[in-house]
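Exercise (ungraded).
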Amino acid sequence: AQSVTQLGSHVSVSEGALVLLRCNYSSSVPPYLFWYVQYPNQGLQLLLKYTSAATLVKGINGFEAEFKKSETSFHLTKPSAHMSDAAEYFCAVTTTSGGSYIPTFGRGTSLIVHP
Amino acid sequence: KAGVTQTPRYLIKTRGQQVTLSCSPISGHRSVSWYQQTPGQGLQFLFEYFSETQRNKGNFPGRFSGRQFSNSRSEMNVSTLELGDSALYLCASTRDSQTTDTQYFGPGTRLTVL
């Protein structure tokens, strides 16, 4: 079985400050990991994904995440927060077995950016 | 290229009724997945269709069903609605059924069950 834990349902930062959103996963097989962003009244948009290539993954809008197998983590970071980054962020894991997969999402972290 | 579209965007039903939601994937995409999003349970995978066949299924009761047409458009049906079915239903399309493919999400259908 696989699971995803996002530490902190809300994270508050000041504009220009470092953004760190935490994601820990559990998986019995090598995982594929994703970060999505959801703005109000919209669907999810992929920020970045890890697919067993480079452990440091760069995504859109200046976000990046590092896969750390020993810590079973895939934390999302951005050096400098913008007001437009305020949204809900979801970490997700999928594993493949016999050609099929079921994706599992974390509960989400709401990023609040103060001016 | 047009994105994933979902209709209707909002729906109000009463307990016991049934509902059908529609999803049109991005042109050329053959896989459509459905998700239920609620404040209490978060985002949960319902099922995935690929080339008109259900490939994967999440842990939902049989009241939740779906189908996919030859043009890849998909419908999701919920029968005998319960209050707990109130949620945002999202669909996502991918080019094919690979775990590493990027999923493109639609804006969702917000279902309210009274």
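Further reading is listed at the end of the chapter. For now, observe: The mean pLDDT of chain A is 91. Chain A has no helices and 14 strands.
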